Amino acid sequence: MQPGRVTDRHIEPPIGSIPGLDLGLVLLGALGLTVLIALGGSLRALEAPRLLLGLTYALYVPGYTLQAALFPRPNDLDGPERSAASFALSLAVIPPIALLLDRLRLGIHPWPILVSLELFVVACTLVAWYRRRRSAVNLRASASGRGWRGRWTIQERKARAIQGGLVVVLAVALASLAVVVLAPGPGERLTEFYLLGPSGLAESFPRETTIRQPVSATVGIVNREGAPTTYRVEVLVGGQLVAEVGPVRLAPGARVEVPVHVASPIAGDDVEVVFHLYRSGDRAPYRSLRLWLSVKGS
Q: Is 255 exposed, middle or buried (0-12, 13-18, 19+ CB in 10 A)?
C-alpha cells in the first residue's frame, strides 16, 4: 500500500484526483456563450449551439458551480448526487436572479440575464477553486491512518452534505416565494388606465352618436410605476387624432381623472375609438383602451 492512500473505495482519493479542469471548462463555456449571443443574431448557423449552451448555463451550470463551492471534497457527493444537486440548485438560483433584474428595472432580457448568471457562475467558481485547494491541504495532513472510524465519518459527512444541499434549495425557494408574495410584482406596477361615462360609470359610456357630435367621457390614470411619471393620452377615431389629454405628471400612487370630448369625423355602425396612453419618452402606446360607436350621418 502506498503512503497516503487507503484501499477502501469510500475514503477520499489522493490529492491528484481533485482536478480543476471542470471549473476551467465552466469559465471557457461562459466566454463561448457570450460570443455566441453576440454573434448569434447575424449568423443563423450559431442558433443551435447558442440554444444548447444557453440551456446548459441556465439549467445546470449555476447549480454545478454552487454545489462545487458548497461540497468541495470529491466524496462529499457522488456523480449522480452532484448532477441532481446541480439541476435542483440551478432551478433555485434562477428565480431570485430574475426577481432582482425585474426590481432593478433591467428587465428579463438576454443580456441582463447572461451577465447576471455569468457573474454568479464566476463567483461560485472562484469559491469552489479556493475551497478545493484548502481541502487538498487538509487531505495531505490526514490522508493516512484511517480505518473503520474514518469510513463512518465520511458517510456521515456525505449525509450532512446532501441534507445541507436540500436545506439550501428549500431556503432559496422559500425566499423567492416570499419576495413574490410580499414585494410588488410587474403586474402591480402597471399604471391603471380606465374610462368612465358621463355618469361616472364605465358602462354608461354612450354607444350611439351623430357625426361630429361630441360625446363625453372621463379618462382616469393612476401611477403605479413606483416613481414620478408624466403621461399623455391620444384619442383616435377611425385612425384620426380627434383629442388629446396632458401631459400630466403624477407622483407615485397619485390619481387623475380628466374629462374628454370625442367627436367622430366619420359615420358607421362600428366606428372604433381608441384611447392611447403614453409615458414620457415612449414612442409606442403604453396602454390602450377601445370602444365602438354607432355613428349616424348628419
A: exposed
